[in-house]
Amino acid sequence: MVRPALGLSVTQLVGNARSASFATFSDAPAGVAPLPLINTLDRTRINLTPSLDITGKQGLSVRVGGTYRFSGAARSFGGYVQMGKNF
Question: Please, which residues bridge with residue 70 across strands?
Fold first, then answer.
């Protein structure tokens, strides 16, 4: 048996979407100002997770899927394979 599936979700950031960190080098001379690392995240991200489940007659099942995340400035992709055996 083959069963396709599709998951769709939206992640909404609530609050401040800006993060800030400051770094210094361990060998930097005294009095050197820290290096600011400021990042502004997108407030909305769309998550898409398609998958395909394949189940055999003897209880062996395989799931193949992917994960896709999209926002205004970023994209990420991933994939997975799962295998199982029913007892």
Answer: 46, 75
Token pair for residue 54?
């394949």
- Token pair of 12, please? 């909404």
In three-state secondary structure terms, 38 is strand
Tens of pLDDT along 32-48? 888 898 887 788 899 99
Name the β-bridge partners of 23: 35
User: In this structure, how many other beta carbons lie within 10 angstroms of the beta carbon of residue 55?
Assistant: 15
Query: Any idea what DSSP says for residue 29?
Result: P
- The residues near 7 (Cβ < 8 Å, ≥ 6 apart) are 47, 48, 49, 50, 51
Q: How many CA atoms lie within 13 A of 80 on its CB side?
A: 9
Question: What would the pLDDT profile of 2-25 be if each residue is shown by its tens digit?
Answer: 999 999 999 888 877 788 899 988
CB count within 10 Å of CB 2 equals 7
Query: Which tokens sit at 62?
Result: 């395989």
